[in-house]
Amino acid sequence: ITWRFALEEIEGSVQHTYAEAFKEHIEQISGDRIVVDVFPYGSLGTSTQLTELTRNGSVNLAFASPGHLADKVPETGLFNLHFLLPEEPEKTRDLLKDPELISRFQQPYRNSGLQLLGFISEGWMTWSANQPLRSLEQFQGLRIRTMTSAMAAEAYRAYGAEPVQTPYSQVYSDLQLRKIDGQTNPVFAIEEMDFHEVQTTLTLARASHFIASVVANDDWYDGLPEQERTWLTDTIRDLADHAWDNQEELNQERLEQMLEKADIRVIRLTEDERELFRQASLPVRNRYLEVTGAQGQALLEYVESWQQP
Ligand code: 6CS
Q1: Residue 153 Cα to chain centre, angstroms
Q2: Which pTM was predicted?
Q3: 8 CA distance to ligand 1 centroid (A)?
Q4: Which atom of ligand 1 is nearest to the CA of 145?
Q5: What's the rounded Cα separation, in Å, for the pair 99 and 109?
Q6: Which Pfam families does the protein's record reference (predicted)?
Q7: What residues are in contact with ligand 1 under a 6 Å CB criterion?
Q8: What fold characterizes domain 126-207+255-307?
Q9: What's the fold here for domain 2-122+211-253?
Q10: Residue 79's CB: how many other CB atoms inside 10 A?
C-alpha cells in the first residue's frame, strides 16, 4: 500500500525533514506494508493546489499552512494573528499538540473535506526587506509579500503595509524584480529559498510563528483499517516533539549559514518596539471574529487563555 504525502516546501526544509521521519516511522511499524511517497514542493503545484489535491483524494496526506488555508478553512486564520500564541516557546509547543485544541479544529477542517492530524510550528516568522523594520513608520506603504489568505495579509495591513499575496514559488523573482519590498517567513525558509540574495535585512520581531497543519483526505482517513489509522495517529503524536526540536535546530543553523555567506543584517526588536506592534495588531482579531463568528470566538478565547503565566 502506498500513502502519498505532499509538501509545501522543498527538500531539506522543516516539512521535508518531518515527512522523511514520518515515512521512516510508518514503514518501520508497518513492517514495510505501507510505503510513503513524499512529494516535495514543486511538481504538484502551489499550497492552495495541494489542498485541492488532498480534498479530491489525489494525494492522501499533505501539509496545509493556515497562511494559505484560511480562505478555505476560516477558523485557521487564527494562526495568522500576531502576538496571540504564548510568549514562552515551550508553551506554544505544548499548545500545538494539545488534544483539546486539535479537537476544536476538527469540524472546521471536515467542512472542507479534510481530516486534521496535527499542528507544527516551523519557527518564528522573520521579516525580510532592504531596510530595518523596527517601527510602524517603516512599514508605511511597504509592499510586503504574505501568504495568499486574506487573514495573512490583514495582519500586515494593520501595520500600514501594502500586502501582496503570492504563491511561495513566485517570491524570489518578485523580490529580484522589486515588485515587492519584503516578505515574511521562518529563517530556514529564507535561506533555502535564497531570499537573502535579494534582501539586505532581517528583522526578528517574534510577532508570530509559522504554523502548519498536517492533513489527510477525509474519506481516505475514514476508510483506513483500524490498525493503519492507529499507526498514523501514533506516528503524528510521536513526531510532535521531534518536529519542534528540528525546526529550532534548522532555524539556528541556517541563520549562521546565511550570516557566513551573505552580507545580511540582523535586527532584533526590543520589548518596547514589540509592544507597539502588538497594540497595532489587536484590531485584526475583530476581523477574525467577523469572518468566523461564535466558533472563532471560542477558539480565540481558548488560545488566549494559554497566554496567562
Ligand atoms: O511562504 C510560504 O508560502 C511558505 N512558507 C513556508 C515556510 N512553508 C510553506 C509556505 O507555503
Answers
A1: 14
A2: 0.97
A3: 6
A4: 1
A5: 15
A6: DctP
A7: 8-9, 47, 65, 68, 122, 147, 168, 185-186, 189, 210
A8: D-Maltodextrin-Binding Protein; domain 2 (3.40.190)
A9: D-Maltodextrin-Binding Protein; domain 2 (3.40.190)
A10: 25
Nearest to 18 by CA among 240, 209, 262: 240
Q: By the 8 A CB rule, do 159 and 136 touch?
A: yes
Calculate how far, in angstroms, residue 185's C-alpha sits from the geometric centre of ligand 1: 7
C-alpha cell at 302: 481558548
The answer to whether the beta carbons of residues 276 and 206 sit under 8 Å apart is no
pLDDT digits (tens, 9 = 90+) for 134-165: 999 999 999 999 999 999 999 999 999 999 99
> Which residue reads 516533539 in cell numbers?
241
Assess whether pLDDT exceeds 80 at residue 238: yes
Ligand 1 pocket mutation pick from 7, 17, 185, 192 by most atoms within 8 angstroms of CB: 185
Residue of the CA atom closest to atom 9 of ligand 1: 8
